[in-house]
Amino acid sequence: MKDNHASPEKADNSILHIWGRSTLQGHVKISGAKNAALVVMAGALLCPEDCRIRNVPLLADVARMGQILSALGVKIERNGDILDVNATEIGQSQAPYELVSQLRASFFAIGPILARLGAAQIPLPGGCAIGARPVELHVRGLRAMGADVQIEHGIVHAYVTGPNRRLKGAKIYLDYPSVGATETLMMAATLADGETTIDNAAQEPEVVDLANFCRSMGAKIQGAGTKTIVISGVPKLHSTDYSIIPDRIEAGTFLVAGAITRSEISLSPVISDDLTAVMAKLRAIGAKIIADAPYQLRIIPGESNIATDIETLPYPGFPTDMQAQFMALLTISEGDSVISETVFENRLRHVAELNRMGADIRVKGNHAIVRGVPMLSGAPVVATDLRASAALVLAGLAAEGKTTIQGLQHLDRGYERLDVKLQQLGAKLQRIQGEPEDVEANVEVDNESAASKSTESALK
Ligand code: UD1
């Protein structure tokens, strides 16, 4: 695999300095969807022929998934945003622990590996910063399809017995519309004997993208994007050339950047239907959002930002992956807001960092009560997880003075060169490699050189 994309291994001690209160303007290009790209890469394991995947974002998580596929014997090569994957010979059915433990989405490979080889061993992904994230729904569904699944010493061992070692179609009801479980089981069912029905399935756009990818390889899948998905197993899938959808979370993050800096910006490509809940909340806060060209949105801030309540829910509800960014926006909106996180149990850790910047947020259980303040003030803060790091960047853009963010490895997992894209919109920020003390002496706000340095570091 060519090493021309964001590197997962490098411990990132770089720091992002943001000088707040500048106005943004212009247009930003939205990258391919992280969560779709990761699961489509896993889905390529189903196919014994060449798969070309386009519009793949340059992210540390994507690079890590590439390493996991390589460790399984898959040939994988990246050129720009195109990924060529060939899983003709999957050399082994065991994914390496060190890699899987760093990327939960890699567990989703259990479905395609089991379907292809009749056996798969994948380490449990373990907890992560935002919650325990168990996998029992994946396991129960695979058992319903005839797999023998045992969990021993932290490794999930799954086998299919019988003459052809193929999974069998089954009727599966998910207790919760888990995105990952829906994807695992949908992939597994594409090569199973007979028909599988997944009820109470996740309806996220990334599930639909995976279904479309599998269909482009000859899979028979109906109902993706609704609560019931029906898959008729086929004996084999074939080669494909497929393009990933735009990232609705990156797009939502830039819309919030427009609202929080009170700036008019446009973005494309976007699928506005995927952003219905996000746009509804931005309108409730006071912004105008218009679709001024196909696959393009423009945000026009209102006179003022007004408080609103938010509850995260499975799609088409408000996405948990946008909760932290909206919290940053609501800290400086007029009035009180209640944000309820119902999807993950530990996803309010950014509250403490936002409060360090002058926000007034109290947490009660899974609710955050946000009292709008007139202004945030820049401060040194630490990113705790992927979307929390985006929230701190947004808060820094709006704050008075300088914000310094550490923990950028979280940001690089899921945003393709966010700092560079913001600089291109006129934000004053600079990403610097090194310790805080070294950095302070050298900092000058020179957007052009900062942009090129950031690009270099993202491409390493
Ligand atoms: C995916 C996304 C993530 C997003 C989340 C919810 C990827 C790579 N990640 O994560 O960005 O925030 O959807 O939209 O696509 N659960 C169980 N048992 C299971 C599976 C899940 O209890 O077997 C719980 C989880 O702990 C969590 C909730 O269900 O509390 C939602 O998880 P799920 O929808 O599975 O999210 P992921 O697929 O992990």
Describe this entry's structure for a reader:
Helices cover 33% and strands 23% of the residues. It is α+β, with helices and mostly antiparallel strands and 460 residues long. The chain folds into 2 domains: 226 residues, UDP-n-acetylglucosamine1-carboxyvinyl-transferase, Chain (Alpha-beta prism); 210 residues, Enolpyruvate transferase domain (UDP-n-acetylglucosamine1-carboxyvinyl-transferase, Chain). The N terminus and C terminus are likely disordered. The site of uridine-diphosphate-N-acetylglucosamine (UD1) has 22 residues, from helix 1, helix 5 and helix 6.
Which keywords apply here?
disordered N terminus, 16 helices, 460 residues, 4-stranded mixed β-sheet, alpha+beta, disordered C terminus, UDP-n-acetylglucosamine1-carboxyvinyl-transferase, Chain, binds uridine-diphosphate-N-acetylglucosamine, 2 domains
Number of strands: 23
Main beta sheet, described?
4 strands, mixed
CATH topology of the largest domain: UDP-n-acetylglucosamine1-carboxyvinyl-transferase, Chain
What are the distinct ligands in this entry? uridine-diphosphate-N-acetylglucosamine
Shape: elongated
Q: What's the gist of this structure?
A:
Helices cover 33% and strands 23% of the residues. The protein has 460 residues and is α+β, with helices and mostly antiparallel strands.
